[in-house]
Specification:
Serine Threonine Protein Phosphatase 5, Tetratricopeptide repeat, 2 domains, globular, 0% strand
């Protein structure tokens, strides 16, 4: 409105300037048009020009607004495209990770390695260590025959340091602890031995012969074949399980738990235990011999003895 006032004001002259200004300040354009004789037709021209100016300004405003809207729409479209592109790439990456490299079957199972770990992670020791541990084992057994069980345990612990999974070492430690009346220690060790026996028993006939150094002299069966060694090891495992249950029966007998002692003896004979003389004379079984069911255990052991 100030632009229109400036144009009209400069088109007026004489004493009417002040009156024209009053009309303009009150925004009374029709009255100004009627009472401004000095302007005449020029007033109409000026008014027309300025109306056209306002229209032009409005046109420019709408053009500018349209340009701004177009820029906003363009930026928005670009952002949407970028989001869609990123989403597509993420979906592709997820599918690629699930399906594997191009040309592979997503449902295919991974190939088995040629060398599978043995059950419980057991590893055989090398021959030099076998020679060392057998030396300690022999010395420990010598001490045990002399009833020097503390010294025997020291030797057996040396074997344990070389190979914590050596089967005969577990049997001899448990037997020495029983002689020393260390029943809780003996029980814990027998439980550990039974876990080891379970791990060995799970091995296939390819891995099991690698542990044939645990066999005692004469147990190899006179053959160096893997099958013969595997069969000899399975026989040794069964024997060790029977001996472990027998020793647990001795502990239960000392504790006065007769039924559990008989249950352990049944487990022993089921695994081939056949030492009838030990069942009849072992002082550790004194509390269980008069129990009902003990004769059945004796008969089963005698049957095992007669069976080759």
């Amino acid at each position: 409105m100030r632009l229109l006032k400036k144009v009209l004001y400069t088109s007026c002259s004489g004493d009417l300037d002040k009156e024209c200004d009053n009309f303009l300040q009150r925004k009374q354009l029709p009255e100004f048009k009627r009472n401004c004789p000095s302007c005449g037709s020029k007033t109409k021209e000026v008014l027309g020009v300025n109306h056209i100016g306002i229209a032009s300004l409005l046109v420019l405003f709408f053009i500018a607004a349209g340009a701004v809207y177009w820029q906003i729409h363009r930026v928005r479209s670009t952002a949407v495209d970028l989001v869609q592109q990123a989403t597509s790439q993420a979906v592709f990456a997820i599918r690629e990770s699930k399906s594997g490299p191009k040309g592979t079957d997503p449902d295919a199972k991974p190939a088995l390695s040629s060398s599978q770990p043995t059950p419980c992670g057991l590893r055989p020791v090398n021959q030099p260590d076998v020679n060392r541990l057998l030396t300690y084992l022999k010395q420990g057994m010598n001490y045990a025959t002399q009833h020097r069980y503390d010294l025997a345990l020291n030797e057996f612990e040396q074997v344990r340091q070389i190979d914590p999974n050596f089967l005969a070492m577990h049997e001899d430690i448990a037997a020495a602890q029983l002689k020393l009346k260390k029943f809780p220690d003996a029980e814990n060790h027998l439980e550990e031995e039974l876990k080891l026996i379970g791990c060995l028993d799970q091995m296939n006939d390819t891995d099991l012969p690698k542990f044939a150094y645990m066999l005692e002299v004469g147990q190899e069966g006179g053959s160096n074949s893997n099958l013969a060694r595997a069969l000899a090891m399975r026989k040794r495992i069964k024997q060790a399980r029977g001996a472990a249950h027998y020793n647990l029966a001795c502990i239960r007998s000392h504790q006065g738990i007769t039924e559990q002692a008989l249950a352990e003896l049944r487990q022993a004979v089921e695994n081939g235990f056949s030492d009838v003389s030990a069942l009849r004379r072992d002082p550790d079984l004194a509390n269980v011999r008069s129990a009902r069911g003990f004769q059945e255990v004796l008969d089963a052991a005698a049957t095992n003895r007669e069976t080759p």
